[in-house]
């Protein structure tokens, strides 16, 4: 009996507990809904809905002449919410849509596409990517007219998700200067240094988490549209850049050198027209732009004999010497304390004038003169660094500029031999751009201007920021000294170590440099060779420096290695520069007289019409077509439709490279090109049916 009572008691206790728990459930539900409702609804929102960043379109980078150096081309990933379309719309359009997808992508049959979309709809999947291959803007517009897709995102469920790709029309041209930036916003060159302007401001949009962990965009009135990045306008000239890279690469390969740099700059303005940096690849095969030695800290090295120009400036400013006085160099060796200074020529130069000492680049002569006149006051000699503006970096527009280094008298690393060695470009460090600024100042009648690469930041036609010529020193030396330095630099090319590059067409002024490489605390038989100068010497427009590190072979000196590269680049610039070459000016003038209408061939109708309106040239009304060919009819411009939408190879003749690339690559055509300018000819005739993996060759001119 006691056992029975015990069992009944236990059952009653369990029953009471169950009843209490059952009663607590609605109370808990009520509390969650009423008291904690907002909290849990907010949590549900954050789990299934999120405002996520929508990347802005990155700004473009342009050369000084408007050539496009880097841009972001829009591509689209095609996705679908198969549950959005109404049953009648879906049933009537799915077969046609599947046929379109199969014909476009050519990777699955129409039946396979239909099965994929239908199965996803039955499984109530809210998001599927129809194909991983991204499509161009024009193809996206065509797809938007397909069945079901034409109802848009809300009616048909189609999602065209924008994906941008950074593209360089000129491939590797100026690649290190243009630079890059990675996902962590670390990089190099313009892309990195001006990232805050280029990247724009990301927007925000509401996304919904769907099956599989994917996120799909959901239209929301509170979406924040992204602001596109600013465009960066450089001072570079793509033609000069191409010439500089080509000439430098040829010499590096011929001499099997470690690396080389070239900078070309306008004398009056300080605008950099080209920066080339080529370094031997790690596998020892070929050269690439892996580091900016012209600007960066790794390019900060002992300049060698190009620094003798500074030594002569200090000597002439002190009125210590005249160019025609004699200096004894003996057999080419002179002892300073425990070190022997030597000339490159075996047996030395004997007794020569100071002018000849500079032209022949005598180490003994220059170091003896500096030690003789500044040995008791080396700080006075180095004080001229402040006078010419070479003590500190220029705060150049690209990140990573190397800082000049010079020993200071009285410090523990200053020795009795320091001044003589500094006077010929040792025991000090300069970047190529710092050395070039000094030579440019001599060419510019003593006015030192700051080298600059970026001239404007803008969005559309609105300028956000602008840079102009900045004068660092109004005069680095007296007018008399500057004239004498100009004479010395011209003499180097006429009679001295660079007479191999003397030119009958125009005069070059400059100085060779050859510095032994310091490795593990000892000077080796490897050399850092250079040539810095300007041209034409009688009316300087361009200054330039060429450095080539560790060339191999016979006569690995600045005059034999770097100077010929300088001449090759200068010759090609001179040949095409209208201001420098009278024959070119006459040719252009005769062409201008022969035509009353501007040189326009093809492009976007609206853009061309705006240009012609500003020029005051009459033109026929703008057609609704996006791309047109232009026909000059006496004194009026007429339009001819240029159909780029057909499933055939389009006609891109007369277009700029940028426009041609936009049209062709958005049609899935791979492009190879040669030359500069507008499209003269194309390897595939317009109207040729498009095939998979089509490749076209464009000739520009």
From TrEMBL:
Domain PASTA, chain residue ranges per copy: 643-701
Superkingdom in the source lineage: Bacteria
SUPFAM superfamilies membership: beta-lactamase/transpeptidase-like (SSF56601), Penicillin binding protein dimerisation domain (SSF56519), Penicillin-binding protein 2x (pbp-2x), c-terminal domain (SSF54184)
Location relative to the cell: Membrane
Keyword annotations of the record: Carboxypeptidase, Hydrolase, Membrane, Protease
InterPro entries for this protein: Beta-lactam/transpept, Beta-lactam/transpept-like, PASTA_dom, PBP_dimer, PBP_dimer_sf, PCN-bd_Tpept
PROSITE patterns reported in the protein's UniProt record: PASTA
Protein name: Transpeptidase family protein
Organism, as annotated: Algoriphagus marincola
């Amino acid at each position: 009996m006691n056992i029975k009572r015990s069992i009944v008691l236990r059952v009653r206790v369990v029953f009471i507990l169950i009843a209490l728990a059952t009663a607590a459930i609605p109370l808990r539900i009520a509390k969650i809904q009423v008291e904690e409702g907002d909290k849990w609804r907010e949590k549900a929102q954050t789990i299934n809905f999120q405002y996520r960043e929508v990347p802005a379109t990155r700004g473009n980078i342009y050369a000084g002449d408007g050539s496009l150096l880097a841009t972001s081309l829009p591509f689209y990933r095609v996705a679908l919410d198969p549950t959005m379309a109404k049953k009648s719309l879906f049933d009537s359009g799915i077969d046609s849509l599947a046929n379109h997808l199969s014909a476009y992508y050519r990777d699955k049959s129409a039946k396979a596409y239909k099965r994929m979309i239908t199965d996803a709809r039955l499984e109530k999947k809210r998001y599927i990517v129809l194909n991983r291959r991204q499509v161009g803007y024009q193809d996206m517009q065509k797809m938007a007219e397909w069945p079901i897709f034409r109802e848009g995102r809300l009616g048909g469920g189609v999602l065209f998700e924008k994906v941008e790709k950074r593209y360089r029309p000129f491939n590797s041209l100026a690649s290190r200067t243009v630079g890059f930036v990675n996902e962590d916003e670390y990089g190099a060159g313009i892309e990195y240094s001006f990232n805050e302007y280029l990247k724009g401001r990301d927007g925000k949009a509401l996304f919904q988490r769907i099956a599989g962990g994917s996120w799909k965009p959901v239209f929301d009135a509170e979406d924040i549209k992204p602001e596109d990045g600013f465009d960066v306008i450089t001072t570079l000239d793509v033609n000069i850049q191409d010439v500089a890279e080509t000439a430098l690469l040829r010499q590096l390969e011929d001499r099997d050198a470690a690396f080389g740099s070239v900078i070309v700059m306008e004398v009056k303005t300080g605008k950099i027209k080209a920066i080339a940096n080529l370094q031997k690849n790690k596998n020892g095969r070929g050269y690439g732009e892996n580091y900016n030695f012209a600007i960066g800290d790794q390019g900060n090295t002992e300049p060698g004999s190009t620094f003798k120009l500074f030594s002569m400036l200090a000597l002439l400013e002190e009125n210590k010497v005249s160019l025609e006085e004699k200096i004894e160099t003996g057999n080419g060796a002179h002892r300073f304390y425990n070190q022997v200074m030597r000339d490159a020529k075996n047996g030395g130069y004997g007794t020569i004038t100071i002018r000849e000492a500079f032209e022949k680049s005598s180490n003994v002569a220059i170091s003896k003169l500096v030690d003789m006149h500044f040995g008791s006051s080396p700080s006075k000699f180095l004080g001229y660094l402040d006078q010419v503006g070479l003590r500190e970096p220029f705060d150049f527009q690209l990140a990573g500029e190397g800082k000049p280094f010079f020993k200071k008298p009285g410090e523990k690393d200053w020795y009795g031999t320091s001044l003589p060695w500094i006077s010929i470009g040792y025991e000090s460090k300069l970047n190529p751009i710092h050395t070039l600024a000094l030579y440019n100042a001599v060419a510019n009648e003593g006015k030192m201007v700051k080298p600059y690469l970026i001239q404007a930041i803008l969005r559309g036609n609105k300028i956000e920021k602008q840079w102009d010529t900045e004068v660092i020193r109004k005069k680095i030396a007296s007018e008399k000294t500057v004239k004498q330095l100009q004479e010395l630099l011209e003499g180097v090319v006429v009679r001295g170590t660079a007479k191999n590059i003397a030119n009958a067409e125009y005069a070059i002024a400059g100085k060779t440099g050859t510095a032994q490489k310091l490795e593990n605390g000892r000077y080796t038989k490897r050399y850092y060779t250079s040539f810095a100068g300007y041209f034409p010497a009688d009316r300087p427009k361009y200054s330039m420096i060429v450095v080539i590190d560790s060339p191999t072979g016979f006569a690995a000196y600045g005059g034999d290695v770097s100077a010929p590269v300088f001449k090759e680049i200068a010759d090609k610039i001179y040949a095409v520069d209208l201001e420098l070459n009278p024959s070119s000016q006459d040719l252009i003038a005769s062409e201008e007289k022969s035509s009353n209408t501007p040189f326009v061939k093809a492009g976007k109708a609206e853009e061309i019409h705006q240009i012609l309106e500003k020029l005051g040239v009459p033109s026929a009304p703008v057609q609704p077509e996006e791309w047109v060919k232009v026909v000059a009819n006496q004194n009026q411009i007429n339009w001819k439709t240029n159909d780029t939408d057909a499933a055939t190879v389009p006609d891109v003749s007369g277009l700029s490279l940028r426009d041609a690339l936009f049209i062709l690559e958005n049609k899935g055509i791979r492009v190879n090109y040669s030359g500069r300018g507008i499209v003269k000819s194309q390897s595939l005739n317009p109207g040729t049916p498009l095939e998979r993996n089509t490749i076209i060759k464009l000739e520009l001119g």
